[in-house]
Amino acid sequence: MLKKYFSFLLVFLLLSNVTAVSAAEPIDEIRALIKDYYIEDVSDSVLAKPTAKEITKHLDPYSAYMTAEEFADFSNGIEQQLVGVGIVLEEDVKGIKVLSVIQGGPADRAGMQAGDIIVSANGISLAGKSVQNAISIISGKENTTVTLNYISVETNSLVTKTITRELIKLPNVEYKMLGGDIGYVRLNSFAQESTKEIVKAIEKLSGAKGWIFDLRNNGGGYVSAAQEIAGLFPNVKNGFQLRYKTEKPEIYAAIPQKVKFTEPTHILINEYSASASEMVSVSVKEQKGATIYGQTSFGKGSMQTLFPLSDNSLLKLTTARFYSPNGTPVHEVGVTPNVETAVGEELTISHRDQLIAKHKGYHKLPMLKDVPVTKTFTVEMNMKMNWSALKPEDVQLIQLGGSEVPVDVKVANDYKMTITPKAKLQSKGHYMLLIHPKWTSKNAKQMQKGIYLEVTVK
Hints:
Elements: H1 2-15, H2 27-37, H3 44-47, H4 52-56, E1 64-66, H5 68-78, E2 81-84, E3 87-92, E4 95-101, H6 106-109, E5 117-121, E6 124-125, H7 131-138, E7 145-151, E8 158-164, E9 166-169, E10 173-178, E11 182-187, H8 194-204, E12 210-214, H9 223-230, E13 238-244, E14 250-253, E15 265-269, H10 276-286, E16 291-294, E17 302-308, E18 314-323, E19 339-340, H11 346-358, E20 363-364, E21 368-371, E22 377-380, E23 395-399, E24 404-405, E25 407-411, E26 416-421, E27 430-435, E28 451-457
Helix pairs in contact: 5-7, 9-10
């Protein structure tokens, strides 16, 4: 019954205009739904509480009662359209944790960071409140202000900032071609149109020789979107396993897509990748559809169902736990990456490994550390070279996590050449210098192997 009801809900909630009705809360409806569908049994003493929010306060952090206005804010957050300060939130025992900060938004400009914990907004404590309740307090009309008190993740001290709310229109899917023809696609939320947007990105990057799919700081979204996105990966046939309160575990198939990522593919996750991000990551990892890079994810292995109530308010209720198709748990455990990286180095390491895989057999030279931003590279061979056959594409300098850097290649003598970047290198940047085996010596001896070396900048 629940599965049919939930499928109906997706259509109902997306196509209906929900308007607020001033009426008493449908408390008996709420109690009945919790008894029938909440993932765990709830005591009579909790169900006897006089209001919906007092009852849901005693459930898990992801179950909440929402007015029509609060649900509109919740939906807009998933679809990446909102008036607010530009932060993605999750519950925390001390208040509301910032999962990610939208680049260029008001909170970003104010200096807020992922990991900050908001303890109050406009003097109202957020301790023990749901994300939906917090959003209703933090968000508001465009060009109005909100004063946030938060614990800084960087200093562990209490910070107060007054921030002006703005209309924020977010690209849900971002993409670009990284140096060395590695396609990069970032998904910010599992929204209704996410799969179509990712397919367009893959088609735009059709020359890619490898893929990086970025789910860092992605707090989740719709289960249906996760099921579709799992179908974008090679060899992935199963989406996830769901376990409801009263039913046996059921495996849901991934929904195959006509356009897919091609091997090799990496997925990036971090401690703020949650819910649908974890659903896709754990299933793809298990079926070897991609290699996971980053840190262990958040650990939200539960699914919520939205129940419209008779007064046009809604009840968001945890109704199932999800697992990998083979039953690997996610809830309060998270997804462990195949390749663990330091925080902030996920993309750099993934891009490096993609380039190395693309150039198998190349000889690795010792890393150059802390070079100046004006570095000129010198290549010296042990025999006289026929430099006249040198082509610009035979040498590549690629910023890891970024684009190829144009260089000037000049012959110094029969043995030596120099490689000079046409612009300053980025301070603290990571690069890879590739020299492809296309050259010959004066006596026509072919270069046997390409070479590469990694470079870090002061």
